[in-house]
Design goal:
The protein is mainly alpha-helical and 67 residues long. The chain has one domain.
């Protein structure tokens, strides 16, 4: 550690994995759509659109990095 910097304690690790965290977020998104008045099916379609958009953005970013 560099001189003059206080030592940082180890941060606790989360008991929730990244996958679990993403699943919780998607469930909350779906629930929010339903609470906003969308049907269960509409809410699922919207959540799927969010996932598809995120995947497409990730793939496009990977393609750009390869250039």
């Amino acid at each position: 550690m560099a001189q003059g910097q206080p030592e940082q304690p180890d941060l606790p690790t989360s008991p929730i994995s990244a996958l679990q965290s993403d699943a919780i977020s998607l469930h909350e998104l779906h629930s929010a759509y339903v609470q906003a008045g969308f049907t269960e099916d509409q809410a699922m379609q919207l959540a799927c659109a969010v996932i598809a958009s995120a995947v497409q953005a990730h793939v496009m970013a990977a393609e750009i990095r390869r250039l």
